């Protein structure tokens, strides 16, 4: 077994912030499913508990102190999120439940207003269902055509295909910044520029990038960008939609009700300003505060360091896993172009069985199609196993994974 | 050591009983488990009077549990009466499989039973002329 | 000043469960805005922290222990909620963000599929914007007509008007069980029965009833019922839609993406079963668990006792407030027909100023239109002040309110 | 005792300056505060050369803070140059009001300034012929 190289984060020190690694009755927690959802540091839990125990009241509408305090905390979280992705202003940040709702919001409020029969949408073959199903529904409903940027054998997007795909009928281009299966980091800047050149609106599904690397919406130049709080140390129940201000302003609302209106009469309704126009009803404001604390935590670590740590552990995982006979790795083998996600299969073993066997050793990996069935069809497999990494995974977690894989093979009487 | 993958499970997986096609089947039904993409297709030949399972075969791909359980299921039901199959509850199926399963793996173990029962019900709906059971 | 009569809940004892009453630097918290959002007992916060610190992973899709544990907790919460409102089965409970999203879900997925130009929807004059704006949007988009059950001078719904309103064109009747302004408890059973008699689908906005009194969806016989977790001791970010199983099954999905599908291919998509069909993406499952804990807490208190306590404090508030000169109370003056909501104005004082002045004394009331602008138009006022009660309000909170009102009048040089 | 409702605030509320109509106004603008339904309408008469605020009047209903602040605002700006008004920042308005305000009440205090500035801008958009300022 090779010695683990040095890390750019002090993983063992920061692990202390994550109660879950201490509370599982002393059994080791090798948590390799952060791409599905991450663990939470106590700072995030404490920020939410602080609201609930000392500054709780409904936001925006109360003039008494508790409500003012809660409102201030909520809007401060919006500012933090805006700064984290370098959004030009806090009011370009709409809080949703998750990336999925953010994408649906775009599909309902932007695309249904702006796309017409015969228009085209360009996606990629590697999309998560969240960035696939809303568009298939729209396509069916409106007679819009979907086209897909293909992937190469190595698991990269084939951007050469863009010339042919980007016709004048293409009105919207939506793609994952980082694939949750192949791990590949797509050249988002290039795709956005090419799409803008033909006047298409661009949507970046940053669910797997914002948690793991520096992302700058102004540098990308995209029109919309979405992600979920729960994958970036934040709580469940909170997601983000960044949108270009003028687009958000021109869009009709999506959900309607209280808070998102300026005036309601029996005969007339006037909408509130952006971003409130898109936040109907009591928002998940405590969760937003939790996300704000997660952003603080990540900022203190430094997103460059987070990325560097993941590059290292991913490189190490690619190296160690390729030494295991029967393992097939999907996606680029170069950690430079890969987020902290390593998807693989083990010959003769169904991923589900593998996950159950590894679970016996306290190792949590995901098995299945990872909400990317079309991509799995394209790859010609029904299901895969996936190990994904985050700030709290030491390189030794990779060693544990490999050891457990060998044990699984033995248990299933697989000879080599 | 590993209670989930005991010898009898691995044996059913490696040497599945009632596996393959059944060209003269009375009905064939297929379903998948959305969780993992496990897929199972069960074909059934009934007795002439339609009261017994005369023969059956399964085909599919998926995890050891789902495939071994399907094999064990068909081994159990072939020769039984339709009524016995209707009365065969998930709990009994889990006992048949005989290894401890977590909630999500329970779905794998029960996929075969679900496919068989749904297939049977659909067949009955079509064949009990006019008389639609509940 | 009168002595406070005995309560049906041991308020002083249960207040100890609510950290916020202890943590505000010793300043008294007279929190009279629970109709906007309630405070939380430590049991709810602990239930959520327990998931985050010992059983956290994304739900439904993982086969490893952490994910199985989180999934089991999430589905157990669904069972609890179902039992709480006597829903026939857990799979008739869809988790949303809040009551507002639940109503929008009905408007998008049920009404847009089933209502046609010329059809009519019956609402009431006392609706919250959440049960008003989604229907005005639909009405405009689809040429559907909205009609309103009027209120009487005393603030009751005038059910005599139903005969005329319930024509054969009415396809949907949606109304608040309890008004968040007038406090009036509407005869939901009667309205549902009358609506069903003409074949209309019924929607009950139970945002102000489920937290405060026993509610039984099967006894009501309604088709849909909605409420929010944050108004019933639960966290933000979680709401409920109860729907009749057959209706839910026949409806197309609303938000689409991961988890709500059974199969996704490039050319075909098949939806998952109810209720998952309506829960796209990673749900707010930790919040659902928190709501489950809130349901446990309320069940332990007994909803009958909760209602009785609120009836008592409301009766006391109506009595004490009507003794203050210049106070005008809106809605029924009989606490039998009134939830724990007392809306009023003080002559010559804008409600906003009143709320600011009371806040100086540590008393939190709400001022404004309480997201019911149409009702305020109907009442002929721009804004009102509202005090609302919950399990943790002792009768002495009413005394504090009245004392502070008199002080406010003095500060504003109002003679009597 | 009550710093929010100091005498000068109550005085402006009870005896508002520049209150009422202005029949020969150059522009009239009205807005409301969605939080509380406060409503304010400001009418402005400019000097002949359009460089100064010759006269103004407000009318509306709402809380003490919004109405008193409107009165104080008009008292302050009538006679000033249009440029001075354009440079008049929210911070300066809050200093003019001179009482401590929580975030939501700040909106009340600034409603008048918002109505005045928006009204002015809309008027300029229409009257600086062809030359649309940003
Ligand atoms: C009667 C009524 N309906 C709907 C709502 C909306 O609740 P939420 O903001 O949690 O969606 C409220 C709460 O303000 C209410 O009182
Ligand atoms: C690339 C990508 N997009 C979208 C999503 C959906 O995220 P959520 O379930 O939080 O909406 C995920 C997470 O599974 C993802 O990996």
Describe this structure in words.
The complex is a heterotetramer, with 2 copies of chain A (416 residues) and 2 copies of chain B (134 residues). In chain A, a hairpin with a 4-residue loop joins strand 9 and strand 10. Chain A has 15 helices and 15 strands. With 416 residues, chain A is of the alpha/beta class. Chain A folds into 2 domains: 130 residues, Aspartate Aminotransferase, domain 1, CATH 3.90.1150; 256 residues, Type I PLP-dependent aspartate aminotransferase-like (Major domain) (Aspartate Aminotransferase, domain 2, 3-Layer(aba) Sandwich). A 7-stranded mixed β-sheet of chain A has the order 2-8-7-6-5-3-4, with helices on both faces. In chain A, strands 11-12-15-14 form a 4-stranded antiparallel β-sheet, covered by helices on one side. In chain A, strands 1-13 form a two-stranded parallel sheet. Chain B has 134 residues and is α+β, with helices and mostly antiparallel strands. Chain B has one domain: Sufe protein. Chain: A, CATH 3.90.1010.10. In chain B, 46% of the residues lie in helices and 19% in strands. Chain B is built from 5 helices and 3 strands. A 3-stranded antiparallel β-sheet of chain B has the order 1-2-3, covered by helices on one side. In chain B, a hairpin with a 6-residue loop joins strand 2 and strand 3. In chain B, helix 1 packs across helix 2 and helix 4 crosses helix 5. The longest helix of chain B has 25 residues. The N and C termini of chain B lie far apart (46 Å). The C terminus of chain B is likely disordered. Chains in contact: A-B, A-C, A-D, B-C, C-D. Chains A and C meet through helix 3, helix 4, helix 5, helix 6 and strand 9 of A and helix 3, helix 4, helix 5, helix 6 and strand 9 of C. The structure holds pyridoxal-5'-phosphate (2 copies). One pyridoxal-5'-phosphate (PLP) sits at the interface of chains A and C. One pyridoxal-5'-phosphate sits at the interface of chains C and A.
């Amino acid at each position: 077994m090779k010695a683990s190289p040095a890390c750019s984060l002090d993983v063992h020190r920061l692990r202390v912030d994550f109660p879950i690694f201490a509370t599982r009755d002393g059994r080791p927690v090798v948590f390799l499913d952060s791409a599905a959802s991450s663990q939470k540091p106590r700072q995030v839990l404490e920020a939410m508990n602080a609201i609930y125990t000392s500054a709780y009241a409904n936001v925006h509408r109360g003039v008494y102190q508790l409500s003012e305090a809660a409102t201030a905390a909520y809007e401060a979280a919006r500012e933090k999120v805006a700064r984290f992705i370098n959004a030009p202003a806090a009011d370009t940040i709409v809080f949703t439940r998750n990336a999925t709702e953010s994408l649906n919001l775009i599909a309902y409020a932007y695309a249904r207003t702006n796309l017409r029969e015969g228009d085209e949408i360009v996606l990629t073959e590697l999309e998560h269902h969240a960035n696939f199903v809303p568009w298939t529904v729209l396509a069916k409903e409106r007679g819009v055509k979907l086209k897909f940027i293909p992937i190469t054998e190595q698991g990269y997007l084939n951007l050469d295909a863009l010339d042919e795909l980007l016709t004048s009928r293409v009105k919207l281009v939506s793609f994952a910044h980082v694939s949750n299966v192949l791990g590949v980091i797509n050249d988002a800047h290039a795709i956005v520029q090419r799409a803008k050149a033909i006047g298409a609106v661009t949507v970046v599904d940053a669910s797997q990038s914002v948690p793991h690397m520096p992302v700058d919406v102004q540098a990308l130049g995209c029109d919309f960008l979405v992600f979920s709080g729960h994958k970036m140390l934040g709580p469940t129940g909170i997601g983000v939609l960044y949108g270009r201000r003028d687009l958000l302003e021109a869009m009709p609302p999506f959900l309607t009700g209280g808070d998102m209106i300026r005036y309601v009469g029996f005969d007339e309704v006037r909408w509130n300003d952006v971003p409130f126009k898109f936040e109907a009803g009591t928002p998940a404001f405590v969760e937003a505060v939790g996300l704000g604390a997660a952003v603080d935590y990540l900022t203190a670590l430094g997103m460059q360091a987070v990325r560097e740590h993941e590059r290292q552990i991913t490189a190490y995982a690619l190296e160690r896993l390729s030494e295991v006979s029967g393992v097939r790795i999907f996606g680029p083998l170069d950690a430079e172009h890969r987020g902290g996600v390593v998807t693989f299969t083990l010959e003769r073993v169904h991923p589900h069985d593998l996950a159950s066997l590894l679970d016996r050793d306290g190792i949590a990996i995901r098995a299945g199609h990872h909400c990317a069935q079309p991509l799995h069809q394209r790859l010609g497999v029904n299901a895969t196993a996936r190990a994904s990494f985050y700030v709290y995974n030491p390189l030794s977690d990779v060693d544990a994974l490999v050891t457990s894989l060998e044990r699984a093979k033995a248990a299933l009487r697989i000879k080599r | 050591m590993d209670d989930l993958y005991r010898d009898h499970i691995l044996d059913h997986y490696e040497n599945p009983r009632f596996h393959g096609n059944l060209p003269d089947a009375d009905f064939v039904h297929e379903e998948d488990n959305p969780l993992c993409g496990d897929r199972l297709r069960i074909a059934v030949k009934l007795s002439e009077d339609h009261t017994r399972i005369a023969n059956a075969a399964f085909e599919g791909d998926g995890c050891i549990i789902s495939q071994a359980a399907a094999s064990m299921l068909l081994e159990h039901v072939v020769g039984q009466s339709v009524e016995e199959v209707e009365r065969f509850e998930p709990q009994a199926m889990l006992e048949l499989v005989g290894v401890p399963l977590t909630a999500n793996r329970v779905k794998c173990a029960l996929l075969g039973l679900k496919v068989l029962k749904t297939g049977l019900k659909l067949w009955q709906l079509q064949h009990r002329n006019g008389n639609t059971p509940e």
